[in-house]
Amino acid sequence: MKVIKACLGVFIAVTLIGSVFASNGSVHLEKVNNSLCDKASLQRGAALYMNYCAGCHSLQFVRYKDMAKDIGIVDKNGNVLEKLVNDNLNFTSDKANDPIVVATPKTLSSKWFGVPPPDLSLVARSRGKDWLYSYLKGFYEDPKRPWGVNNIVFPDVGMPHILLALQGTQVPVYKTITVQDEQGKYLEKQVISHLELKTPGTLSPEAYDKAMVDLVNFLDYVGEPHKLERKRLGVWVLLFLVVFTLFAYLLKREYWKDVH
Ligand code: HEC
Questions:
Q1: Which of 13-22, 44-53, 221-230 has the lowest mean pLDDT?
Q2: Which residues lie closer than 8 Å to 90 by C-beta, 6 or more apart?
């Protein structure tokens, strides 16, 4: 019931105030339609994260237990199902109350990848959801790069394509555009128009997209665990302001009626 109310709240808030979406301007970002109210999606996203990303990327502001509670891994009384969390989401020797950190020292990972894999606690906020979704779908074959892949929204990325087996191999399809150089001369330039699947992975493209929506949904939740609560409260604040304005107006009319 609480969840339905919160979802309704979010919907009204979005309808009332509208929302602003971040985009990085130069590359076309694919829009992601995720829902923080969808606990099953958050749980699938968490499972994907713990299996494929947590080996390199920490989530230092999140504790296993708080995460489990927020995404609904609880019994009827709201207590976290710790065994379920430890068997399916925590592959380290850390306790349920510990934050999600990586065991690999940064010096080693810097040596392997050139840069250490950053903490992803706030990545959904710093980069934006659409950027993340496009990033996770945007790896393509590039033999010139150390890991044999590049990324359409993150040129020369230092991360290998961890989900290659699921997605399969993509190759770029180029188009020619005309650009003006500093002297005003027109030049033809080859840019990537879109990516095409060369070798299929274990997931169909639709299933891969759906999995990435879940993963982005999870990172969106991680970036702001209290977003739902905040939006739910926001609706009440707005409603209060509307009602208050009405009363203030009626009061003003009452006070001024004898003045004229
Ligand atoms: C083998 C280690 C490794 C794994 C596993 C891995 N990454 Fe990365 N990731 C990196 C490295 C290294 C970088 C830094 C790349 C750079 O700056 O060029 C990175 C960068 C990123 C970035 C860009 C962050 C930013 O704002 O610059 C995102 C987002 C990201 N990874 C998401 C993921 C997700 C989601 C997964 C799981 C599906 C994952 N990564 C799995 C190594 C890894």
A1: 13-22
A2: 50, 64, 96
